[in-house]
Design a protein that fits this description.
Layout: E1 7-11, H1 15-26, E2 30-34, E3 51-52, H2 54-57, H3 63-79, E4 89-92, H4 98-107, E5 112-115, H5 116-122, E6 132-136, E7 140-141, H6 144-157, E8 161-163, E9 174-177, E10 191-201, E11 211-213, E12 220-224, E13 229-233, H7 247-260, E14 268-279, E15 286-290, E16 293-297, H8 303-319
Parallel strand pairs: 1-2, 1-9, 2-8, 4-11, 9-16
Antiparallel strand pairs: 3-7, 4-6, 5-6, 10-13, 10-14, 11-12, 12-13, 15-16
Helix pairs in contact: 1-6, 1-8, 3-8
Length: about 325
């Protein structure tokens, strides 16, 4: 890493801020990060699923999400090789929702249709529960909390400075603002999209990969983490309200999880998370420049999939 004389202030310690800071530090810039002392805990990306699933996301997103996601999967694997798991994604649906599974298949690539026997080979605890599914073999996932903490530690090891919110912006060549929903109202193009999630503990079952349940009303995914923890998510509600989870959402989550496996009915609820994601009209992030201020925002549901590409764009601007 060759040092430059550029001093950069990065505001925000979520996935957009940390990936930008890390790439800039790798390029030789002197990095200061302004964020609350407990960061990255509490950031919207702290509550994410961490699915590196460009093919699956294509079902409800435009083609460039898939194209860029395929590239950034490699970045995560190179940057945090011990944390990325390459076990693919399994998409299933109850027999009554076979038409929804067909629609999902038609809107996405990178998969093959599998029968109940192969589902049982991939996930033995799903044996006999679904007779048809879609397997996206090249997709992966990462524990977002471990990823954020690992990036923060890498920056500490690279002599980045962490300061509290409100630190002076004087003396910096560029200020990179990755403060997410905090810019709602300042960025006239931005809106809030509320998301909710659960962490549950269940040692009765084990999954090796994210399981997506296709449903006409409540699409849901379950992402395995370590020590019997599963992340269940996530709603997308057009609202910037961050009040606690509603009873309706909680029932939807638990009913859908029970559909995947009845054992989730006995799971312990470890954590309930609510966050408001920043999004633009097309649900695709932006890098904007105004003088020496660079704004990277609007990650919507694609934070882990797209943030390395946004960080690359930031680095190109800053380093010229």
């Amino acid at each position: 890493m060759q040092k430059t004389n550029k001093k950069i202030l990065v505001k925000g310690c979520g996935v957009a801020g940390l990936t930008s800071a890390y790439m800039l530090a790798k390029a030789g810039a002197e990095i200061t990060i302004s964020a609350p002392a407990h960061s990255p805990r509490g950031a919207a990306s702290w509550y994410a699923g961490g699915m590196l699933a460009p093919y699956c996301e294509r079902e409800s997103a435009e083609a460039r999400v898939e194209e860029l996601g395929l590239q950034t999967m490699k970045w995560w694997a190179e940057t945090l090789p011990d944390l990325v798991k390459h076990h693919g994604t399994l998409v299933v649906a109850p027999q009554r929702d076979a038409a929804e599974l067909n629609r999902f298949s038609e809107r996405t690539g990178g998969h093959r249709i599998i029968d109940g026997d192969e589902i049982a080979k991939l996930e033995p605890d799903l044996a006999g529960r679904f007779n048809r599914g879609l397997f996206y073999e090249t997709e992966g996932h990462i524990d977002p909390r471990k990823a954020l903490l690992a990036l923060k530690q890498k920056l500490v090891d690279m002599n980045a400075h962490f300061v509290d919110v409100g630190a002076s912006e004087d003396g910096f060549d560029f200020i990179v603002d990755a403060t997410g929903i905090a810019r709602l109202g300042q960025d006239k193009d931005m809106r809030g999209v509320r998301g909710e999630m659960l962490l549950v503990h269940n040692t009765e079952i084990s999954f090796s990969r994210p399981i997506r349940l296709v449903h006409p009303r409540i699409p849901l995914y379950i992402v395995p983490r370590d020590n019997g923890i599963f992340m269940i998510g996530a709603t997308m509600i057009e609202s910037n309200d961050d009040r606690p989870i509603t009873a309706h959402s909680m029932m939807d989550f638990l009913n859908a999880a029970y559909t995947i496996h009845p054992s989730f009915g006995e799971a312990d609820i470890v954590e309930i998370g609510v966050g408001v994601r920043p999004a633009y009209e097309d649900n695709f992030p932006r890098v904007k420049q105004d003088g020496n201020h660079i704004y990277v925002n609007g990650m919507h549901r694609h934070g882990y999939l797209i943030s390395p590409e946004m960080a690359r764009q930031v680095t190109e601007i800053v380093m010229g």
